[in-house]
Predict the 3D structure of the following.
Amino acid sequence: MTQRDFKKYKVGELRPSQILFTYGIGAIADLPNLAVMVMGLEEWEKNRTAELSEPRLLVAVRRRLGSQVKELRLPPMPSETAESPLDEAARIGIPVAPFPSWMVCPKCRLLAPLQSGLFELKHNPYRPNEARYVHTHCPRTKKPPAVIPARFLVACENGHLDDFPWRYFVHQGNSDCKGSLRLEEYGVSGAATDIVVNCDGCKSSRRLSDAFGEVGKNNLPACRGRHPHLRNFEDCDRQMKSILLGASNSWFSSTLSALSIPSASNQLEELVEQNWVTIGKANSQETLQVLLSALQATGQLQDFTSYSLEEIWAIVEAKQQGIEETETNYQDLKTPEWQIFSEADSSKNTRDFQLHPVSAPVGYEKYFRQIVLIERLREVRALIGFTRIQSPGDFADIEQQNDECIAPLSRYKPKWLPATEIKGEGIFLQFNEDRLQAWEKLSAVKKHETQIKVAQKDWLNSRNSELVDKVPFPGIRYVLLHSFAHALMRQLALECGYNVASLRERIYSQPPEAENGAQAGLLIYTAAPDSEGTLGGLVKLGESQTLGYHIAQALQQMRLCASDPLCAEHKPHGGTYSLHWAACHACLFSPETSCERGNKFLDRSVLVSTVATVASDNLAFFET
């Protein structure tokens, strides 16, 4: 934990993947006795991090955040060789600070900020999980009790977060009263109606229920524009909203991800690509010679001894120019991946990317063009910011999102970003484009697509009317591909041995009139950052005969849901705005880590007939 006096205390442990999706910069980590916020990049020790190489992802990041971003780096990892927790190597990690700063004494119910000096930090280097603040002069007990964080905060849609304005709230406005505050709970439910803030000075009192809902907007001050992870403030015209500590809408990560696809045409190019982090920084042939000589003297990069310096520099220079051309003629992250998968050329396989095509699933040859088994793949994900209140995945694909509400990771424009890499396996399914276009032209499908457009507009209006004209409609084919991906993931998880949350989808959906041509496919791959991602069980299920059986089973399960007829008859209107139709937790919903759209745009009626539809409607793709 980083304090003002720059002392470091280890207070907990996180997995590298959690730094991107759960407890990233600006998020609050709830520890046994503390709540802490992960601080901005200025407070990270860059020299403790390792660089990751993924040129396509770096180009996409630079387009979003600026050309000053030069690197993607792994989070700092504590050293396992430290002999004592007091060693400097044992204290390497992610910097955090206590937040919220208002604490409550469980004995005397005193409510005060850490800056008041009433609470003292107690830390045991051998038991970091016991780090806590105590009320040193509590009148109710002889032993100083451990205080707990106040569980109410305020936030706004611009990514700002602040301590709850306790004094303003209890005094119903600005006041000069300096009396001690106490947070009393009169019920056992923990509901806001049972919690009262009292002032010992002027005897003011107020229930926390007055801070929520429409009433709460009039009882809270305007947003101060605070970014506690950056220790600064900025102008903001939003109104504060009360949220609970640990609320799921207090932090949503905004990430970009790319698969490492082959770009080399010979062995030397592949060697250069594998070691690009090391030799890619050479800006001349002379610099490259010095770099190679120094590393080869220590036993590294011995594979390059078989090639001349001129040959190596020619590849390095060409790759540097290629990255510049990619930045100039940037398409998107998914189109190059789609091209590699649809070509399915196994002669381009590399150490991190190995595929081979197989025939379409038995019994479903007319629906799919081909299946590609990805025996090895590598995905790199970079954190570019975060949002509060509204999830960025609710509105559009990550590359189409508006940056206005994405909070920054640093006070100044970042020169590097935290990233992680995951290695695993996957199955790519390419749909039959001709059959898909014929299905899209059916009158029932066109009618359903119109209803989805209207539902999306109503849903956006109910949340933020400013986004109605900014968020594109993904199209009816995306609804089909997305729904099928969820149905198949649920079935594969039952057979391949993976946990459901260990599988992830990647949808490739573009209409025929798109700039880069039509796309209709999906990749189901392992998303677990541990050994479970490389068990091999997923690829084994991609063989034609086996996959055909699992597709049949997945579609059969979609015909009837445990929540029918309520699930099958669900419509996103009537005051309960949503962006799913015949879908629920019992049939199509997947874990948030598995879905790229937050379980939006799902409808099993576009796959097969349900109890609310009939085959004559011609809406179900696998029955037309």
